[in-house]
Amino acid sequence: MATIRDVARIAEVSIASVSRFINAPEKVRQKTREKIRTAMDQCGYRFNYAAKVLSTRRTQTIGLVIPTITNTVFAESTRGLQDEATLRGYQVLMVNADYDPAAEGRLIRHLLERQVDALVMTVSNPMGTIAGLADAINVPAVFLFSTLPDAPVSNVGINNERGGYDATAHLADLGHERIAMLAGRFVSSDRSRHRYEGYRRCLEERGLEHDPALVVETPFGLEHCREGVARLMDTPNPPTAIFASNDLMAIGAMGELRSFGLSVPQDISVVGFDDVTMASYVAPRLTTIRQPVYEMGRRAAQMAIGALSQNNGEPRRLILDHELVVRESTASLR
Amino acid sequence: MATIRDVARIAEVSIASVSRFINAPEKVRQKTREKIRTAMDQCGYRFNYAAKVLSTRRTQTIGLVIPTITNTVFAESTRGLQDEATLRGYQVLMVNADYDPAAEGRLIRHLLERQVDALVMTVSNPMGTIAGLADAINVPAVFLFSTLPDAPVSNVGINNERGGYDATAHLADLGHERIAMLAGRFVSSDRSRHRYEGYRRCLEERGLEHDPALVVETPFGLEHCREGVARLMDTPNPPTAIFASNDLMAIGAMGELRSFGLSVPQDISVVGFDDVTMASYVAPRLTTIRQPVYEMGRRAAQMAIGALSQNNGEPRRLILDHELVVRESTASLR
DNA sequence: ATGAAAGCGCTAACAG
DNA sequence: CTGTTAGCGCTTTCAT
Predict the structure, then answer these.
(1) Structure pTM?
(2) Is A49 exposed, middle or buried (0-12, 13-18, 19+ CB in 10 A)?
């Protein structure tokens, strides 16, 4: 493999000039530029990124940890993050943990070894992660999707508790009293737990009974809804409405409900969370809580990169607005 | 940041021992191991990956280029790739090109600069990419999803032409004669073009008229189906069936069709391609051509890593079986 | 089992 | 505008 040394020798200049040519062509005379360019072509030079990193101790990349690659919310937020990062001259190195706390730790360590300049992550339990991160306190971190009351680390997202409340309230407003929650495992998502807390608060405020049989936790993912829905519906007194932790699960639930011979929303209402693009394409179109995910991704990148320049350690916290989007999957209780 | 030098000094051993401890602990005496371990904790040592790469000229990572992060087929194939890579001690560095040929070039170059050991990619035009890759011929490359008759580069996928044929034939078998194709832009996907070719061949073999008005190309992505479907349906003699390039577009089309007041499959049949998980959850459940995507990802990783060890330059080609999955979105022509 | 020493390919003063 | 030089943190012979 050719190095700048080879190029320099062929072009009959110094390696410093070659380096300048690569990083700031304007700093080298036109004539020299051409000599270098031809030399590069001649020996098939390829830049070695690792050498640069080693030398500068900067990677210009931000590490991103997401819980899964199969839920498109994370695709959307990643786009926002990526767009903003690109704009500012950063790359993003993405890894997914499959909702596995152990994997999260490994991956974060790995990203750190790769010298990412900053970390953006959506993890099972941010507070726990923070502890494990203590020694890496010198790389700016921001939690995405989770908003934490008083975490010592920056975070951006919506108020999930309120989101859960609003979803449930919508159902209650429609006259539903037996409202179930199909929840993604709390241990693998604090967002899910916060949404559940909002659900609980709403039931209480409305004076609705909280039947534990109406709350089922399942792993995240479309394919895990079957059993959850079955457990909910195979009871003497099934719910008339289901609030799902996210749109993926809501869509999964609607699919299962049909297998049970139930129509949404005639027989049972369903509300999701996220408002992924797919939500407005499925039949019936899904009522859901919209998170401004693209924007969230952008903001996360801004915060991460921002923290890099102004090195005051002040964690920032950004709570964006969510919004109930009423579509066709919810209806008044007959 | 602490380095192995710091660790060595504190532990009172040589840096070589520290390095050995990191890479092959069994090569260092128990006693020394412990000294090193405590020294590491004491100074908060963190491994520097870039230095290793620079020194070994190996990253143990395979670069992956995908066209988009929002279509879950690529999420599934990536999982397969990742699982296999992990198994063999490799990481994967994923980038997405948003179906933009220019971005593909940039990203591939970027991956190469990052010294990936091998490349797995799904690009707009593999043959074109190969040309641009000529100088990087020393890193093994494999194309994923595209299967190329006689490319000088390994590839794994299904026979897309036959897939397109089978999808169309299913529709023809149901009595449809005006079969449209909602195709992802050919310039951004050779898979889409190959599927189209299968569609054409089927029409010809069945003696069905090929009406150019029945083929619309749109950008990939759920949100781009509106105009395509409108163009198809706002005609004097609209199709009675639509074959979409992929499930995402098929689902998008079904959504739009409903806006037109049409029922699938009563008024119009729809068949997709890929069999993403979502396909069996939407209503009506989608008839589609299944690709073994997870397996494809695994095989791609195997081929890439395999090529690394046995350095005979022989490109390999692997064509897996696809399968028509008939569900609810297609029906006989009334 | 351990250590000394020579790089890996680039950047960044500094000097000219 | 260009060149010299000393690293960046790790691996890897080659000795011992």
Answers:
(1) 0.93
(2) buried
